[in-house]
Amino acid sequence: MQQQNDEQIRLNIPIEQYQLPQQLDGFAQPVMFKCSSCQVEAISILQHKPGTHTWLCCFTLCILGAFLAFLPFYMKDCQDVTHVCPACSQAIGVRQFKAC
């Protein structure tokens, strides 16, 4: 029969501290962040909204005679992205769609 050892083995592995971003400008995907208003660490919620460049793409497709000119309004990659805190609903950052 083996005896159980109650001693804990301590490993000297450094724990890296990561700084979570507080401003999410430029990110297109949900990001883990620390909210500057409620101090909660969470993953951002994305809200997509057509912006200026979405409208420019639509008008350009209309001028070129494309019958799918409304397509940029249904493609999330062609819209502005707003990151929102799930705890306090505060807007944390915006990534604007740039057509060029």
UniProtKB/TrEMBL annotation:
Residues 15-97 form the LITAF domain. One of its GO terms (cellular component) is membrane. Pfam families: zf-LITAF-like. It is a peripheral membrane protein. Its main location: membrane. Keywords: Membrane, Metal-binding, Transmembrane, Transmembrane helix, Zinc. It is found in: Membrane. The chain crosses the membrane at residues 54-75. GO terms for molecular function: zinc ion binding. InterPro entries: LITAF, LITAF_fam. Belongs to the CDIP1/LITAF family. This is LITAF domain-containing protein. The lineage of its organism: Eukaryota, Sar, Alveolata, Ciliophora, Intramacronucleata.
